[in-house]
Every structure is written in structure tokens, then in C-alpha cells.
Amino acid sequence: MNHRVLIADDEKNMRWVLAQALEGEGFEVAQAADGKEALAVVGELAPDVLVLDHKMPAPDGMEVLRRIRADGHSFPIIMLTAHGNVALAVEAMKAGATEYLTKPFDLEELKIAIDKAIRMSNLAAEVERLREEVDKDYDVQGIVAAEPKMLEVLDSVRRVAPASATVLIYGESGTGKELVARALHALSERHDAAFVSVSAGALPETLLESELFGYEKGAFTGAVNAKPGRFELANGGTLFLDEVGDISPATQVKLLRVLQERRFERLGGTRTIEVDVRVVAATNADLQQLIADGEFREDLFYRLNVVPLYLPPLRQRTADVPLLVAHFLEKYNAGDRTISSEAMEAMVTYQWPGNVRELENTIERILILASGEEITLADLPAEVRRGAPSCQIAKTGMVLPEDGCDLEEVELDLVRQAIDRSGGNVPKAAKLLGLTAKTLEARMARLGL
């Protein structure tokens, strides 16, 4: 679909030049010679982008801008202002302009601004759509996803849940392994029984054993009363065993017996206890490597790995980020608060080493600390803002050396590559880097090019 651009300028030659340039790029172009005509065309055509000159016969560009925003139109508006009129540019941005350019400007600069405005507008529309759909087909027991890799996982969850087979969930910390385990329980025939969770990585060996299997009175110093273990508490239901790779060899032997025989004895006891428990285990470790290193029993691995599920990290689920943001805005009662397109683009680009957990914590913190009705780029944590450059290191395949690097040298190399690739054409090089020609020229001067 070709995007429609409305050019509103009282200079006929300017309109003609801009129209020719944009039509050559595949845009549909409409024109207006004054403010009154611009408002009329907006009412008829609903353009995707408006290029609006400030200095026009009444109403002038600023008044046109205010009226359009007052009427509820949200399409991007690029304001054209006189050279060096910073105060006017600031006023235009406050009134709702998406971008401004000072005359004279390069045609490539305008094309870049229009492309960026359309991209931001589309992203904002997608965020709003996702907020409306967040409680529909994308939500499985609180797991929100639209990325194909994650949808495959959710499909497996639906199919595996009714069975009682042991499931082993692989995934980095923060990817939602416990959420998946709870979904398996909620969608199973055991949903009315208990879901019991225990993290092997959070407990020392002796304490983990007593937590899993319980103990009898007098089993050790301080055991003044008998206590049932997690297996007993989960009888008839589901036991979620997180960080299973951290279990000691001695406890692995006892866990293997429970999985094989569904029976065990409490610590310090002789009575055999039988249980009917579905075990869902999870790990962020490479169990095959632990087996090779002699730290994990191979027979236990095969008992746990009956149905493996692999949760992708959030950096491989970029399509899910807007959906998850919308979900967490709803979860933490954001009300009518919105998020700017620039802020959303930064969050989509950021790598999220802490995965979904980090994203959720970020949204919760922003809603507490940010004061405006719109969450902007400035409200995001510094690491998220820094993680959204036009050229990502991840995309170029570059890896930061252990002893660091000179960032200016990296920038110099990227600028040189862009200039070489564009045959020395600065506007084209700027477009490759996601910059305006003026910004690139300033950087070239600073870098001595």
C-alpha cells in the first residue's frame, strides 16, 4: 500500500519540487496552498503524513496543527520552519508536531523524516491494537505471546497438559518457566489439586532434601515436630522443581527413586509414603554438559526429560515486546497512560538480558516514577535507552572484546563504511545510518572526515 502525504505550503514551486521527489519514492501526494485548504483536505483524505509549512495565509501552520490535534487526528505532522527559529520549533513540538525541519533542507532529509514518522505511527497503532487484544487468543494462563516460536510452545502446553507425563522446561532465567509450569497444571485434570513450587538453586543440600521429602520429629537438631515435604503437599497435584541442575548427587538419587516408584521416606523416618504427583522440572543449565562432567545423573535426566519444552529468550521474541508491554500496563493498572512510539521502539530494540522478568520490572518501575500521561524515551532506564541505536552490534555480528574498545573508532569505522557504500553521497550515507544529512556532516567534522 502506498502511503499518502499531504504537502501544505503556499509556495507553488516548493509544493511542486516536494511532490515530484516524493512521488518518485512511491508516495501518493496531495497538495494544499493554504491553511484553510489543508484542513479541508485532511477532512477528506486522512493523510498518513502531513508536511506543513508554518508560514501560510490564515490560518497559519501552527493554527492548522492545533486544530488537527484538537479534532483527534493522530497522524504524523512534519513542520517546516524558518532557518534558526528554535523557539517556533519547540512550540510546534509541544503542540503535537512529530518532527520539524528548518528551511532550506535536503530532500533526502525530508524522506528520512517521513519514513521515520510512518514507522513510528505504525508502531503506535500496533501497540494500541495489541492492548485491545491482550486478553484474547494470545493469552494462555497468563502467558502472552504472538511470536511463532513462543506460540509453538503454547501449543505444546495445551497438548501436553492433559497427560501426567513429566515435563522438563529449558530456558534462561526470567523467560517464564514457572508460568509455563502453572499453565500445565491449570490445563490438566489435576487443576483442583495443589501446585507446589520449590527452587533447588535457592536451598542448600540438607535443607532441600528435607523440603522435598519432609522429616520426622527428632530427625535432626531443631526438628521438634514432624513436617511433610513438598512431594506430600503436592499429592494429587503438580510439583514444580526449578533449577533442577543444581541438585546435589545424593539428592538426585532420592529424586530418581521417587520418579521411578512414586514412594519415599521422610528424613529420619522408616514409614514409606506413596504419592501421585506430576513433576514439572525446569533448568537454565546445560544438563548434557553436566552429565558429561559427572555432575548430573544420566538416568535421572531421562526420567525428567520425557517431554522437553524450550522457552526462547526475549531477545528472540521481539514481536512479543509490544504485546508484553501492553499486558504489563494492564496488569499494573496504567489506566489511560500511553507509551510513545520512540519509547516502544527502544524497548523492542533492547536485548533484555533479564528476559520477561526484566521487562515486567521495568514497566512497574516506570509507572511508579514517571509523572506524565505518556511514557517517553526519557522515562526509560538508561540501559534501555542506550540499547536502541540505529545500528545494533547484534546485527553486525560484532562482539565487545574482554579488554573493551574505543567507541569513537567503532563509530568512525561505521561512518566510513556508510560513505564507501553510498559512493561518497552524504545524504545516502546518512540514510544508511538512520541520520539526517546535517547530523552526519556534523559527526564527520568531529571525526575529522
Model description:
This protein is α/β, with parallel strands linked by helices and 449 residues long. It folds into four domains: 129 residues, 3-Layer(aba) Sandwich (Rossmann fold); 161 residues, 3-Layer(aba) Sandwich (Rossmann fold); 72 residues, Helicase, Ruva Protein, domain 3; 55 residues, Arc Repressor Mutant, subunit A (Orthogonal Bundle). The chain contains 20 helices and 16 strands. It has a five-stranded parallel beta sheet with strand order 2-1-3-4-5, sandwiched between helices. Strands 9-10-13-8-14 form a five-stranded parallel beta sheet. A two-stranded antiparallel ribbon has the order 6-7. α13 packs across α15 and α18 crosses α19. The protein starts with a strand and ends with a helix. About 4% of the residues have low confidence.
Architecture blueprint of SSEs:
Blueprint: E1 4-8, H1 12-24, E2 28-32, H2 35-45, E3 49-53, H3 61-70, E4 77-81, H4 86-95, E5 99-102, H5 107-133, E6 139-140, E7 143-144, H6 148-160, E8 167-170, H7 177-186, E9 195-199, H8 205-213, H9 230-233, E10 238-242, H10 249-261, E11 263-265, E12 272-274, E13 278-283, H11 287-292, H12 298-304, E14 307-310, H13 321-331, E15 338-339, H14 341-349, H15 355-369, E16 374-375, H16 382-386, H17 393-396, H18 407-421, H19 426-433, H20 437-447
Parallel strand pairs: 1-2, 1-3, 3-4, 4-5, 8-13, 8-14, 9-10, 10-13, 15-16
Antiparallel strand pairs: 6-7, 11-12
